[in-house]
Amino acid sequence: MQHGFPDINSRWQALVAGVNLIINPNTMHQFSAMHMLSPEGISHTFDDRANGYGRGEGIGSLIVKRLSDALRDGDTIRAVIRGTGANADGRTPSITQPSTLAQANLIKRTYEAAGLSQTSTQYFESHGTGTPVGVSFLYNSLSKRLTHMSQDPIELEAIASSLGASRTAAGLSPLYVGSIKPNVGHTEGCSGLAGVFKALVCLEKGMLVPTYGVERLNPKLKLADWNLALPQNTMKWPNRGQRRASINSFGFGGANAHAILDDAYHYLSDRGLVGNHNTTVFEDDGGSDSGVSTGPGTPVLNDEKNATFLFVFSTKDQAGIQRLAASYADTLQKIGLDKADPHYLSNLAYTLSERRSHFDFRSLFVASNLAELGAQLSKGLPKTKRSSRQDNNLVFVFTGQGAQWPAMGLQLLSNAVFYKSMRTSQDYLKELGCEWDAFEELEKTADSNINFPQYSQTLCTVLQVALVDLLRYWKVTPKATIGHSSGEIGKLTYALITPGCRFVNPFKPRLMPHPISPTRTPSGLPTSGVSALPL
User: How many domains does the chain have?
Assistant: First the structure.
């Protein structure tokens, strides 16, 4: 992904997953024989009781995606990956004994490849197994004595020799270090993701938590000398502004991996980017959220307060629609309508429409507040026919003048996209010397000029172009378009900007400059009342 493979223009993402399940006792017997496991079944990370690790079970996954794609697709960005790296220990005294030098070199290389300073990180989520020789690698990278410390806490020695030494040289405060293994155990194949999840939540919340169960610090950990520290209590992130964390993960065969994460809010705001995130931003943290967060701190916009939302439900069987309605109704009752996030309504409508698969059986309804939503879900959803399995067969027909009426489209002006399109058209009309204003004409009722061709033809075209812009914004695309008279402008506007959309050329009329009004033919079909001649 970093190098744009397979195609820099394609949508590309990856599901990163890890699993550890203890299904049979064989592995437990083997690891116990190798004295790798703690007799208490607990990882005493950083504690002088360190005597092996406690195994844990876990299944975890995350989505990795290019930032530009996530911003384009409206994804909630949990964190930004600034860099990753991996290497191997090489030869060590035993297969289970890590190498301080290899781990330290990996950290340095990962920061160099990312173009980041080692002094810019405030928290380090360590592998932290709690084994007697597996907890140290952060001390002075310039010291030649590292090669003689195979029995010391190895991981923290490596951290000290890279980030710790850099912060010391810069005169900065200690780097905070922690580990999740005392909480959930060593989940082995899932342990790297467990560390990422913890670091990610700490970045989002802007808080650091103490490592569970540290009663008496392992005397081999010279934290003060190494410029490292353990959070003693739950505390705010040690500095304001950008938050950065490093994560370590190792395999007992000698594999080492390292990742660097930034919090989403500060990364985006520092670069002038707008995207969805869940980062908690404090008042003394250099500014407000500016409305880019999907969290509870985001201000509710006026348009959102007064909007009516469409809720789409979809299942693979018809009975599933009512089961889905009951499930959502139960959820609303549990969270309490009066305590719900003010963004809950718009977020739910968006998620159901854009983030859920659309199956054959669907139902929908509209609601403008949580009470309406709850009432509709409680009484059940409307039944509809099975949806068509054909590909997009939508056709747009753009009429000419004759279908107009006073104040047509006026309600749509409350939509920002529609209004912007109308405003752009009005600016063009003014530039071309038009003596009247489209907005003013649309607001007229009794004294409307809508039935005069010089008004109706122009206003119909302006409204149709605005509808094109609005439907495109909603990602509603036709397979073909057809237009009559001035409607050909709307037809061509959509056809030319929509890949794969075809248009049909109809009869072209010549309009006569006299007032028009809708009439009916003997068959009862409406006509435009426009005099037309072949061109």
Answer: 3
